[in-house]
Amino acid sequence: MAAVAGVIFMASLIMIPGCKNKGTATLSETPTSGTIRIASDESFQPIIAAELDTFTALYSYAHITPVYMPENELVAFFLNDSVKVIVSSWTPTEEQRKVLLDLQTVVRTTVVAHDALALVLHRSNQDSLLTYNNVKDIFTGAITDWKQISQASRLGSISVVFDNVRSGNIRYFREKFSLPEELLPNFYAVKSNTEVIDYVSKTPGAIGIVSVNWISDEDDPQSFGMLNKIKVAAISQPYLDQSSFYLPLQGHIYDKSYPFVREVNMHTRESFTGLGSGFVSFVAGEKGQRIILKSGLVPATMPIRIIQVKNE
Predict the structure, then answer these.
(1) Does the fold of domain 116-260 match that of domain 29-114+262-299?
(2) Which of 25, 36, 156, 245 is found 20 to 30 A from 185 (Cα to Cα)?
C-alpha cells in the first residue's frame, strides 16, 4: 500500500509543471464554497439531510452531494479515498489506522451527536417493557418466543429485523453481546431503517433495530408518521435495577439511562481546510448543534439543560 502511495506521489510531481491551474483549482474550494461529495451511514440520513439543507441555504456557493450507504461500504469508501468526509458511528481499528498512516493520511474525527438504537415493536405487542437481560437473551437465542417473556402472550416466535448485514446497527449489537458473524435463523436483514419500520408494523412477533433519529423528531411529518406505525420498547439498565425502564428519549440518551447509546462521528481526511471541513465545523457549531437538539438526538459539542417533567 505504501508502494502504491509512492507511485501516486511521483506521478503528481511529474504532473505539476504541466498543470499551472492546479493550485487555482484547489483554492476555488473554501470552507463555505465548492463542490464535493460526502458519505453517511444510512442510519443518520434524517439528521444529515437536515444539516445539509440549512448549510447550503446559508452558503449558496456550497454544493454537497450526500451518498447514504451501509457502514462497511462507507468505511471502504473512506479508506480508499473515494470521499473525504464520512458520518458514522465507526471508529478506525488499529489495522485501519496503520493503513492510513502508511498512506501518510491524517484523519480528524469530531463527535457531533449521541444517538441511540431503538428497539421497535408491533403496535399490538403488550410486552413493551424489556429488561436488558431480556434483550440480551433474545439476541443470543436464549429467548425465541414471546411466551418466555410473558405467558399470556400470543405473538409466537420472535423475529429480529435490522437494516442491512453490513450496517453499523447490527455491528453495535454484535459487539455488545458477542454475537457470531453468522446470525441466528430468526434474524432478518432488509435494506434500510424505513424497511425495518414497515416490516415490524406488519409482523406482530417482530422486534426491529433502528437509529432513533428516524423516529425522534415529532415535528417532522416523515418521522412522526413512522413513529405512529410502531411501538418503541423501554429497556432497563444492565446489572442494576431491573424494574425501571427507559425509552430512548433525549434525557435518557444524555445520562445513558437508556443502555444502547452510541456516538455520531464525522471523519475528514482533507489535506487542507476545504468544504468538507467547513461542513463538519458547521455541524459541530451552534447552528448545527441546535438542529441536532431539535431532531431528538443529544448534541455533543454544546452544553444542554435537561428538564425533567413529573406527572403528579
Answers:
(1) yes
(2) 245
Report the C-alpha gap between 161 and 193 in whole angstroms: 10
Separation CA 81–CA 307 (nearest Å): 43
Domain ranges of the chain: 29-114+262-299, 116-260
Closest by CA position to 273, among listed 27, 50, 65, 60: 27
* Closest to 205 measured CA to CA, from 116, 117, 134, 126: 126
Q: What is the DSSP pairing of strand 129-130 with strand 234-235?
A: parallel
3-state secondary structure of 189: strand
What pLDDT score does 240 carry?
66
Class of domain 116-260: alpha beta
* 165-168: long-range pairs with CB below 8 Å, 24+: 165/70, 165/189, 166/70, 166/71, 166/72, 166/73, 167/41, 167/42, 167/43, 167/70, 167/71, 167/72, 168/41, 168/43, 168/70, 168/71, 168/88, 168/89, 168/90, 168/262
d(CA 42, CA 80): 19
Give CA–CA dist 252/172, Å, rounded: 18
According to CATH, the topology of domain 29-114+262-299 is: D-Maltodextrin-Binding Protein; domain 2 (3.40.190)
266-310 pLDDT tens trace: 999 998 999 999 999 999 999 999 999 999 999 999 876 655 554
The predicted model gives 6-30 an average pLDDT of 44
